[in-house]
């Protein structure tokens, strides 16, 4: 049996490329996004949602559609070498390419006749199609004692330092935090550790260049059209 699912909203995020996106929500609290609903979904469709602190966002891994799916995948948490079944992972390479993210709900609003949700802790690519939004209900969905398989602990973080010539003095605090927290998650492929290699990441309209050596990321330069942590000018 087949079903047709249409997007109800679109994500506006500071992450405009896959490299650098947090691998899970809330690893980068400074990463804010806006969920913009399609015109047919008015204020009544989100009435009462403002009373909840978090929301479940179901979306499509649209940038991975052309890559297809696989029975076995290599989770970054296992070093990118050991395989597990696709349904034992959160890989984007799934049969239906559906993702699920738990975001902190910061605000519910309306602008130019369009309903939107402001969220933080985002791990979503800009332009991501959203297929559903549901309120998070702690008493039924919070299970801190549940077995967590190979992801029982939070991943280690890199130390982050700004080089004097990096341009950090031109950035506001929120944007600096977004960059620092994003790089601290170590966006490199899990199997890659090449000392001295320079990496480039696009975030919030800026191009960020950095090096990673001995557990420390050194930010070399930030250039481009700088935006704030919401991804808006």
UniProtKB/TrEMBL annotation:
Pfam families: TrmO_C, TrmO_N. Residues 5-145 form the TsaA-like domain. InterPro entries: TrmO-like_N (IPR023370), TrmO_C (IPR041369), UPF0066_cons_site (IPR023368), YaeB-like (IPR040372), YaeB-like_sf (IPR036413), YaeB_N_sf (IPR036414). The keyword Transmembrane does not apply. Keywords: S-adenosyl-L-methionine. Belongs to the tRNA methyltransferase O family. This is tRNA (N6-threonylcarbamoyladenosine(37)-N6)-methyltransferase TrmO. It comes from Kingella pumchi. The lineage of its organism: Bacteria, Pseudomonadati, Pseudomonadota, Betaproteobacteria, Neisseriales. The gene is tsaA.
């Amino acid at each position: 049996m087949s079903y047709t699912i249409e997007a109800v909203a679109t994500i506006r995020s500071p992450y405009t490329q896959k490299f650098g996106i947090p691998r899970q929500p809330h690893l980068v609290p400074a990463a804010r996004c806006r969920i913009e609903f399609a015109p047919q979904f008015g204020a009544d469709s989100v009435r009462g949602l403002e009373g909840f602190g978090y929301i479940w966002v179901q979306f499509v891994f649209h940038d991975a559609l052309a890559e297809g799916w696989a029975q076995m995948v290599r989770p970054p948490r296992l070093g990118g070498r050991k395989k597990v079944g696709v349904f034992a992972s959160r890989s984007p390479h799934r049969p239906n390419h559906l993702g699920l993210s738990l975001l902190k709900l910061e605000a519910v609003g309306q602008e130019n006749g369009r309903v939107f949700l402001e969220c933080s802790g985002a791990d979503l690519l800009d332009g991501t199609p959203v297929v559903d939004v549901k309120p998070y209900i702690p008493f039924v969905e919070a299970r801190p004692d549940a077995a967590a398989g190979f992801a029982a602990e939070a991943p280690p973080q890199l130390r982050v330092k700004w080089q004097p010539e990096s341009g950090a003095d031109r950035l506001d605090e929120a944007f600096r935090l977004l960059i620092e927290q994003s790089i601290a998650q170590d966006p490199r492929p899990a199997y890659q550790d090449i000392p001295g290699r320079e990496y480039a990441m696009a975030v919030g309209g800026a191009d960020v260049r950095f090096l990673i050596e001995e557990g420390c990321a050194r930010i070399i330069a930030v250039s481009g059209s700088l935006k704030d942590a919401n991804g808006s000018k």
